[in-house]
Amino acid sequence: MNDSLPPCPECSSEYTYQMGALLVCPECAHEWSPAAETDGQAHVIKDAVGNILSDGDTVTVVKDLKVKGSATAIKVGTKVRNIRLVDGVGDHDIDCKVDGFGPMQLKSSVVKKV
Predict the structure, then answer these.
(1) Tell me: the pLDDT tens digits for 63-102?
(2) Which residues pair with 65 in a beta bridge?
(3) Other CB atoms closer than 10 Å to residue 80's CB: what's the count?
(4) 28-35 — which CB contacts under 8 Å span 24+ positions?
(5) Torsion on CA atoms 83, 106, 91, 62, rounded to nearest 10
């Protein structure tokens, strides 16, 4: 029922609930703002199968990708080395150089960590 709410940062209780703009723990009575919690944590980027990605990883493309301005597409299984994680345009969160296509940004949902 409250799968989307995080556990209490004080006692790790899973029974947190939302009251107005705050999250409340019924076991230790700790109250906190959900916005404050996300500011303290690093943004985790995961690939298509749920593996956590980091800078410098090698990934493979899991589906054919059309490239604007090019007659060919990036094929399934294409290896992309030395990725950088960025806060790109829209859902594009990987900055990389694809052999034969040059520098571009990819979505993490279309790659798999090698």
Answers:
(1) 999 998 889 999 999 999 999 998 877 889 999 999 999 9
(2) 74
(3) 21
(4) 34/6
(5) -100
